[in-house]
Every structure is written in structure tokens, then in C-alpha cells.
Design a protein that fits this description.
2 domains, elongated
Length: about 750
């Protein structure tokens, strides 16, 4: 993401864009869309079906979605100059143009369908006139005779006058709207209705379901973002969008509360439900409601027809549509202010098709679903930006991450509450569209960048918390955090494979490829190339091991540096792994021995893997050999073996434990093992433990060679006294065995 100007620079750097509008058009576009058709035509229906408390609940639920969205928009809009396309611009520049394009198409469709919705509702204002014509002439006049010509007239207005005329019309419309509401609040209850009989839950005896009503009414809450679509025509979007959007949301909510109270105490539930123009029967002068409805629907339609083509134009400008040839055509504009003439044609066609359908409730439910997707995306962006903590994200207005998270979750929940089938279909459609666009369009990677930032910040926080809360004693739930420094990475595969196994679920692994030399520009470049090879290997192997390079004059110095850094878990590594092949020359084995002695000074556990051409065979059996010297090693040897069984490559393997001790200790050790197993401190079944009487090291080597010559992996303990005394001989005592893991720990780990 490109660097955005700081908030303090915003006012001086931003030049007039498009028509150069201020904050008032943003507020007017929002409030005129909020106080629109649904308020006049469906609020009575809602109150009649769910009662006063239910209507309050709908208002609250609606604003639990829209207020976090308004705050999110205000925040995001103050981070950078919001250009043409409004909400789409915000989404695409945060999620990348591929995902942003998918959501942008959903947003555009909601805006285009809204034009039709408001024009259908506009025709409803002429219901009494159409009814009079039918009564007088006997000719049934369909409402489409009003809605279709009105839609064509609105499109003609946009073609001839553009956004400037549309904004000027908003002033007059809002004035009429205000007057109709004043006359409504000054009105009296309908004749014969006693307000004192009204209870908080008074409603129809057989009402529609709550969320069905909510879905029909929800478009009444969606208009607060209408002004965002004017972003390209605002002088200072970073100032005007937050102020206008939040103001429209708050004012709309207050007005809705008072309308609901006025309705419930002015008419019975049956009338509220049955007469969609019931507000005209309550108002001081009834016809003003019809005039207000016409004005409100017309203003909302104007707001939508101003915004929808600009969203489509922005989609085309980013080449975000799956139809390649159509992008440039839709992106082109007319005149100095780049009026979206072509995008307006497409929007008009969609609107006219929906107008011919003519069902307000169905269209309202459709719009609700589209808006939920858009609002949820905006809230998700704000939430992720809070945790990503990208330096380029510096909004002058700050929401709270929990508001944004709550808004995103509410959108998802409301989608499935309103219409589960439609919600699933919407998500499947968007997923399919994403797959198509991913193949045809190279989108931005801001989504990956954002999530990377979130993961980085979350990891940092957890690491710090873990370090501060870590007990000084050995953890009860020990898990391997293994580091390995190896310069023979590309000559053999067994060490990396083994690291992958023990880090599969329960452990953490850091693998550093050793490059001998001095740290300079040349070696750093070479190191980066090697790291890319390592990462490619990790992807192929699906390895959970963290892989990197280390440049140092010697293996000892590389090891010294590596053992002092924290592991990928954020805490100190607790084990270091070495490896050698059965075919390696003696000097390599000597190096491994010296490095073991060096690493032992850190108090870490030591793992030495001896491997060959066998590559762990069929991975069907693991043999663990415990001796009189393995009092401290035993638990770690057993635990590592069971960790291996957690990997799919070893899930059918069997562990056998051989306890080779002098004859006089056998009974005592049997009892000890039985007690540990019974207490659940050892994940071993007694049937898998075999006790063998051995009196000396030579006898031990012979019995190991006899019983484990075919084992896929043999685990043997060692101690530092023996390593200091016999050195490399510790690792060469069992030449007939195949792959062997030698284990040493300076302290006994617990397996509670």
C-alpha cells in the first residue's frame, strides 16, 4: 500500500476534485436516502407486526450494523484521499482489487437495484390517484405507468445535468421531506382510536416473523454511506465524509425512534399493517405525506443514481470486471468532471428491468443482502487495520477495533437470520465470481499485506505475554522447541524430514542453513537466494519448520549466535539437533561431537540423528532403549517418540520400550513404570514395555543389535560424562542399526 499523507497535511495537500462539494451534500445524500421510501411505506407495517418494543429492537439491530460501519468509513476515509467510487475505493485499496472488485460488484448491484426500488416506491405515492382513475373510468392503471416514465426522466436528468443538478435537487427534496415529517408529528390519532389502550408489545395476533420484518425494513438504515459515493466530487473527502456520514446516521436514528412512537400511539395494529399510507391518515394534512413520499423516494433515487454509476466507473477504471473489453468503456467519462455517462446507461438498464418486476418487498430483501456484504467488508477492513498496525495507516479519526469487529459479526449473523438460503447463495455467488476474477485479473496483494500485519502484531503480542508469564521452573507441559544449524542441507533430506515430524503439531522448529564466510553485501545476496530455495523446499514438503540462513566464519560461531536467540514460539529454544550420516567421514562426526559438548553448556536438550540410505523404512516401528543411565532421559525419549506418532507418516507405527538394566533392578523398575503408567505420567502401555537383564555395556550393545536391527527408528539415550570420555564412540557403538536418534537432557521433563 502506498504511503498516505499524514493527517496534519491533509487539509493543505488536498486540492479540489470534481465539483468541489463540501460536507453538506454528503449529509443530504445520506439523510435523504435514510428518510426514504421504507420509512413512509413500511414503518407502519413493522410497528403493526412487532409492536413498539419490537420496532425499537429493529432500530437498535439496524444501527448495531450501520453505526460501526459509519465509524469504519469515517476512519478509513481519513487515512487517505478517497477517490471516485467511494466505498468501492475504500474496499479495493484495502483488500486488493480482486477481492475489492468482487465486493465492489455486490455494492454496485445494491446501488443499482436501489434506484429501481425507490422508483417503484415513488409510484406508490400516486396510489390514491391511480385508485381514483380506476374508480372513475373502470380502467386499471398499473403503477408501472408511473415508475417506468419516472425512471426514464431521472436518467435523462442525469444525462443532461449530471451530478451538479442532482445535488441541487437534494436541497429542495430535503426541505419537502422535513415539512412532511413536521406535519406528521403535528397530526392526531385516527378517528376512534384510543392511545391509552396501547401496550409496549401491542401488535397483530398473527404477525410476520421478526427477522422477515427486519429484512424488509433494513434498507431504511442503509443510506448513511450514500455520500461516500460522491468522494470524487468532494473538495476534501477526508473531512466531509466522516462528518456527513456520522451526522446522517445519528439524525436518522433519532427521527426513526420518534416516528415509531408516533405510529404506535396514533393507529391500531390492523390499520398500521394493512394501510401502507397510514402516515397520511395521521398527519395534520394528509397529502403532504404523499408529497413527502414522492420527494423522499425521488431524492433517494437521485442519491443512488449519483453513486451507482461512479462505483461502476471506478470498477472499470481498475479493470476489476471480468469482461475485459467493457472495463475501458465503463471507465470513460464526459467533460471536465468525468461524468460516468456509459456507466449511467448500464445502471439505467438494470434499474428499468427491476422496475418492471415491481415488487417492493422482494427488492427490499435483495438490497438488504447486498448491503450486508458491503457493510461487513468495511467493518472487517477497519478491524484488520487496527491489528495490522501498518505505518501507512494513520487516520485522523479513530474508531475502536471492537466496534468494527462487532459490526462485521452482526452483518454475517443478520444475513443468515434474514434469509439463510439467500445468504448462502450470495456467498457462493461471490466465491464463484472471485475464482473467475482471480484467473482473469491480476489484483493487488493488500489483503495479504494486511493479514501479514495482523499475524505479525498478534505474534508479537503473544510472544511478549508468554515471555512475561513464563515460570522459572520447567514447564509441566513440555513441548519441543528445536533449533538446528546445518551446512549440509542440500546433500541429504533426512534431517529436515525429521524436524518436520517433531514440529508437526506439538513442537516448534527453527532450521538455519550455515554459510561459512564474513557478513557482507555479497554473502547477504547469496544468503537470500539460498533462503528462497529453503522456503521452496518447505512449501513442497508442507513443513511447519521456520527456515532461514546464517552467515558466520565457523560452525561454532554460528551455533553460538543461534543458541542465544529465541525460538519461533517466542520463548527460548529447549533443544538443539545435530545430524550425521553413516557414510560421513570421521571429521564430520568429530565436529558433531564437539558441537554437542559446546551446546550442552546452555542447558538445552541434545538430539543427534544418525541416518543413512534407509530413510526410516516403512515407519512402522520405533524402539526405545532405556538403561541404568537414563533416569533423566527416559521421559524425553518416550515423549519424542509419541510426538512422531502424531504425524501422518507415522500414525500406524508401534512403539516398543526396552528397559535394559541389571537383574537386581528389574523388579524395582517394573513397579516404578507401573506406577507412572497408572498415574498417567507415561503414555505407554505395559504390554509395550519389555525388561531385559543386562550387566554391562557390551552385553547391552549385543542385545540392541539383536532386537532392533530391523527397527525403522531406534531411540537411545546418552550422558555427557560418557560423551566426554568416549567422544564420537558414543554415536558409533551400534553400527548395525538403521536410523538412530540419540537423546540427552540435563534435567528430567514432566509428562503430567
Amino acid at each position: 500500500m502506498s504511503e498516505s499523507p499524514s493527517p496534519t497535511q491533509a487539509g493543505s495537500e488536498l486540492e479540489s476534485a470534481g465539483h468541489g462539494f463540501g460536507t453538506l451534500p454528503v449529509f443530504l445524500a445520506g439523510i435523504s436516502t435514510i428518510l426514504g421510501a421504507v420509512m413512509f411505506l413500511r414503518f407502519g407495517y413493522a410497528v403493526g407486526n412487532v409492536g413498539l418494543l419490537g420496532a425499537f429492537a429493529i432500530i437498535i439491530l439496524g444501527h448495531l450494523v450501520t453505526i460501526p460501519t459509519a465509524l469504519a468509513i469515517a476512519e478509513i476515509a481519513t487515512n487517505r484521499k478517497v477517490e471516485g467510487g467511494g466505498e468501492y475505493f475504500i474496499i479495493s485499496r484495502s483488500f486488493g482489487t480482486t477481492i475489492g472488485g468482487v465486493i465492489g460488484i455486490s455494492l454496485y448491484l445494491s446501488q443499482a437495484v436501489s434506484v429501481a426500488f425507490y422508483m417503484i416506491a415513488f409510484a406508490e405515492a400516486f396510489g390514491p390517484v391511480l385508485a381514483w382513475i380506476t374508480e372513475s373510468t373502470g380502467v386499471v392503471v398499473n403503477a408501472r405507468f408511473i415508475s417506468v416514465p419516472a425512471t426514464l426522466g431521472l436518467l435523462a436528468l442525469m444525462f443532461t445535468k449530471g451530478a451538479d443538478m442532482g445535488v441541487k435537487a437534494l436541497y429542495g427534496v430535503v426541505a419537502i421531506l422535513a415539512m412532511s415529517l413536521i406535519m406528521f408529528f403535528l397530526g392526531s390519532p385516527v378517528e376512534g382510536f384510543d392511545p391509552t389502550t396501547v401496550g409496549l408489545t401491542s401488535a397483530l395476533d398473527d404477525p410476520d416473523a421478526f427477522f422477515f420484518v427486519f429484512a424488509i425494513v433494513f434498507p431504511a438504515f442503509t443510506g448513511m454511506t450514500a455520500g461516500v459515493g460522491l468522494s470524487g466530487d468532494l473538495a476534501n473527502p477526508r473531512k466531509s465524509i466522516p462528518r456527513g456520514t456520522i451526522a446522517a446516521t445519528v439524525v436518522g436514528m433519532i427521527v426513526y425512534v420518534f416516528i415509531v412512537i408516533k405510529l404506535i400511539y396514533s393507529a391500531p395494529a390492523e390499520l398500521l399493517n394493512g394501510d401502507q399510507l397510514v402516515m397520511s391518515k395521521i398527519a395534520l394534512w394528509g397529502p403532504i405525506i404523499l408529497i413527502g413520499l414522492a420527494a423522499a423516494t425521488l431524492s433517494s433515487a437521485i442519491g443512488s443514481i449519483l453513486v451507482a454509476p461512479r462505483t461502476l466507473q471506478a470498477l472499470g477504471g481498475d479493470a476489476s470486471l471480468p469482461i475485459a473489453k467493457g472495463n475501458s468503456w465503463l471507465a470513460s467519462g464526459i467533460g471536465a468532471v468525468n461524468e460516468p455517462r456509459n456507466a449511467t446507461i448500464v445502471t439505467g438498464i438494470i434499474a428499468l428491468v427491476i422496475v418492471f418486476l415491481g415488487n417492493v418487498d422482494i427488492v427490499a430483501r435483495l438490497i438488504s443482502m447486498f448491503f450486508m456484504v458491503t457493510y461487513g467488508s468495511l467493518c472487517a477492513i477497519s478491524f484488520l487495520e487496527h491489528f495490522a498496525a501498518r505505518p501507512s495507516y494513520r487516520p485522523s479519526f479513530r474508531s475502536r477495533w471492537y466496534f468494527s469487529l462487532f459490526g462485521a459479526v452482526m452483518c454475517l449473523l443478520m444475513m443468515f437470520q434474514m434469509d439463510p438460503v439467500f445468504a448462502v447463495l450470495s456467498l457462493l455467488t461471490m466465491t464463484s465470481l472471485y475464482q473467475i476474477m482471480k484467473r482473469t485479473h491480476k489484483g493487488g496483494d493488500d489483503l495479504a499485506s494486511m493479514f501479514q500485519g495482523v499475524m505479525t502484531q498478534s505474534s508479537r503480542y503473544m510472544h511478549i505475554r508468554l515471555q512475561r508469564r513464563r515460570r522459572k521452573s520447567v514447564d509441566d507441559e513440555w513441548r519441543p522447541s528445536v533449533i538446528m544449524v546445518n551446512g549440509r542441507t542440500f546433500d541429504r533430506r533426512s534431517p529436515l524430514i525429521f524436524m518436520r515430524w517433531i514440529c508437526h503439531r506439538h513442537g516448534f522448529g527453527t532450521y538455519l542453513h550455515f554459510m561459512q564466510g564474513q557478513l557482507n553485501k555479497k554473502t547477504v545476496r547469496e544468503g537470500r537466494k539460498v533462503r528462497e530455495k529453503l522456503l521452496a523446499m518447505a512449501r513442497v514438503q508442507k513443513s511447519p519448520v521456520y527456515m532461514n540462513t546464517i552467515i558466520s566464519p565457523s560452525m561454532t560461531s554460528a551455533l553460538a549466535q543461534s543458541l542465544q536467540v529465541p525460538g519461533v514460539s517466542g520463548l527460548a529454544n529447549n533443544a538443539v539437533m545435530f545430524e550425521f550420516s553413516q557414510d560421513d567421514p570421521a571429521e564430520i562426526l568429530e565436529e558433531v561431537t564437539k558441537n554437542c559438548q559446546f551446546a550442552a553448556t546452555t542447558g538445552m536438550s541434545l538430539l543427534v540423528l544418525r541416518h543413512g540410505d534407509y530413510h526410516f523404512g516403512e515407519r512402522q516401528n520405533i524402539h526405545i532403549w532405556l538403561t541404568w543411565n537414563d533416569q533423566e532421559n527416559a521421559n524425553l525419549m518416550i515423549l519424542l517418540s509419541y510426538i512422531l506418532l502424531g504425524h501422518p507418516d507415522w500414525n500406524s507405527a508401534e512403539i516398543k520400550v526396552f528397559v535394559a538394566i541389571p537383574a537386581h533392578q528389574v523388579a524395582e523398575r517394573k513397579e516404578e513404570f507401573s506406577s507412572l503408567i497408572a498415574d498417567g505420567r507415561l503414555p505407554v502401555s505395559e504390554k509395550n514395555i519389555r525388561f531385559l537383564s543386562t550387566e554391562n555395556a557390551e552385553q547391552f550393545r549385543k542385545v540392541v543389535a539383536r532386537l532392533s536391527d530391523s527397527a525403522d527408528l531406534t531411540v537411545i539415550g546418552f550422558d555427557m560424562d560418557g560423551l566426554d570420555e568416549r567422544e564420537a564412540g558414543v554415536f558409533t557403538n551400534h553400527p548395525t542399526l538403521k536410523d538412530v536418534l540419540f537423546v540427552h537432557t540435563p534435567h528430567e521433563i514432566t509428562m503430567e
